[in-house]
Design a protein that fits this description.
It is built from 15 helices and 18 strands. With about 500 residues, it is of the alpha+beta class.
Length: about 500
């Protein structure tokens, strides 16, 4: 139902809406209907999953305005008050973390997304507070170093314990993150989505594109999902399972936050090479080989208004230059401005009108094949050498006034960062540059066993240059160990680790 509603909103083809409404009619005759016994969704097994139709019914109400759809969704919300269904609203309003709820499994996040839609429909602040509390509490306790949510298919209150990190869980939480970003404009969510996109989501795929995983560990091996969850295989479609159909959405969600707009600005949030054309015929070209390289070239054409460039929270020293032939007013503003732009306080930054075309970088990978020989966007006009004041601030938008077209060079800070391990990974660190998590595997370990790796020196890691070739990023170290980007770790089937000893 949800997928067909999205496709209806994209195509405006009434057949898809009719299909969803016919399905909804079956629900209406079966559940919460006095004529058929008032059967409740709560009576089904796994109510923490089976109450998810409230999401589609809330969307149907927004699209059609029919009261029966809202009434059905509100009946489902009343069922949520039962511990068998998770009691998420009461727990959240009492300040409980998601892992402390009666049913902290990943499937429930689709119910929480339904509450986000109900907030849009009703303006009930309890729904908004619930959605934010669930998202924030998971962010605090249950997001692994890869940007992946879940341990053994649920929240457990820590991200430093081994267990299955399921692709379905990652995708569901990222979809919730997109909803919370739309409702609040919180730019920290964009940092999370970028981290998860390049590591958890892409890391769930074989670089061949032929298969994806059920479980993408922080330490271990990657296996095809049709091996790990073979019980779902059926004759004629052995490769279809919950994770194989969810994994593409993890990558595709980039389209929901890469370029957004508010009432006063066009926001560029992602810097992967590509070309985007909006329904308003605004053309955005991005080049430079990010995230393999820190220097990004942006060309925007056919746009008049305020342009907002996202400065990631990890980029402490950012520079911005504008081409000499473009005159632009520059200002530095945080996400708080975005939160004040909506007159009703609902869904502040809306996703940009659908992209008419999106062209990825030529080698179909997320990294430059050679960051020193990328093709510049547009013509060969020089970029102004002077950095425009004020200094861009990490975790905020940098604003430019565009009067038709503008060419910008953005240089982000790729200083090495470390996440200190705890619990099972106490004494270890995870290593990042930009949005990329690095580790090593048997191929890159210089002949060492992963159980006997030397203690790395942080000074050597920070000083070592990255090498980008054939879509991979490597950081060769003097000790003989090479660090590699998470997406490619273990791609040959070998064991890998993202937790290393470093002093």
């Amino acid at each position: 139902m949800y997928g067909m509603l999205l496709w209806y909103e994209e195509t405006k083809d009434a057949r898809y809406l009719q299909c969803v409404e016919k399905t909804a009619g079956l629900f209406l005759r079966k559940f919460y209907c006095p004529e058929t016994g008032n059967k409740s969704l709560l009576e089904l097994k796994s109510a923490e999953s089976n109450l998810a139709p409230l999401h589609s019914f809330a969307m149907l109400y927004r699209i059609t305005g029919r009261q029966c759809y809202l009434d059905f969704a509100l009946e489902a919300v009343r069922d949520l008050e039962d511990d068998r269904a998770g009691n998420y609203i009461r727990c959240a309003l009492n300040g409980a973390a998601f892992y402390q709820c009666p049913k902290p499994r990943w499937e429930s996040l689709h119910i929480i997304m339904g509450l986000a839609e109900l907030y849009r429909a009703t303006g009930n602040e309890d729904y908004l507070q619930t959605v934010k509390q669930v998202y924030d509490s998971i962010q605090e306790t249950d997001v692994h170093n890869t940007g992946a949510f879940s341990t053994d298919e649920q929240a457990i209150g820590t991200a430093f314990r081994s267990g299955n990190i399921e692709t379905c869980c990652v995708v569901a939480y990222n979809a919730l993150a997109v909803e919370v970003y739309r409702l609040t404009g919180n730019m920290k969510i964009l940092d999370f989505l970028e981290l998860s996109h390049y590591n958890a989501c892409m890391g769930a795929w074989s670089p061949t594109g032929r298969w994806s995983t059920y479980h993408t560990p922080m330490v271990g091996e990657r296996h095809a999902n049709f091996h790990d969850i073979s019980f779902q295989s059926r004759a004629g479609s052995p490769e279809l399972n919950c994770c194989s159909v969810n994994a593409p959405r993890g990558i595709g969600m980039l389209s929901e936050w890469a370029v957004t707009k508010t009432k006063s600005a066009l926001c560029i949030n992602a810097y992967e090479d590509g070309e985007f054309v909006t329904e308003d015929n605004v053309r955005i070209q991005i080049g430079g080989g990010y995230p393999a390289c820190s220097k990004i070239e942006i060309m925007v054409e056919n746009y008049v208004g305020k342009l907002a460039l996202r400065i990631p929270g990890w980029s402490s020293a950012t520079t911005v230059s504008v081409s000499t032939e473009v005159t632009s007013d520059v200002s530095q503003e945080s996400e708080h401005l975005l939160q004040q732009e909506s007159s009703c306080g609902i869904q502040t930054p809306d996703v940009l009108p659908p992209v008419l075309s999106c062209t990825p970088n030529s080698n179909n990978t997320y990294m430059a094949s050679d960051c020193l020989q990328h093709t510049p966007i547009g013509d060969n006009t020089c970029i102004a050498a002077a950095t425009l004041p004020p200094t861009p601030s990490a975790g905020s938008y940098y604003y430019l006034s565009c009067t038709g077209s503008i060419r910008v060079e953005l240089c982000l800070d790729f200083t090495t960062r470390y996440l200190e391990g705890k619990e099972e990974y106490d004494g270890c660190v995870s290593i990042y540059r930009g949005p990329i998590l690095f580790g090593t595997d048997i191929r890159l370990a210089g002949g060492c066993s992963l159980l006997e790796l030397p203690v790395l020196k942080r000074s050597e890691i920070s000083a070592a240059p990255a090498v980008s070739e054939h879509g991979q990023i490597h950081i060769p170290l003097p000790c003989g160990i090479t660090l590699g980007d998470f997406y490619h770790l273990g791609s040959s089937g070998c064991r890998y680790t993202t937790w290393l000893h470093a002093e």
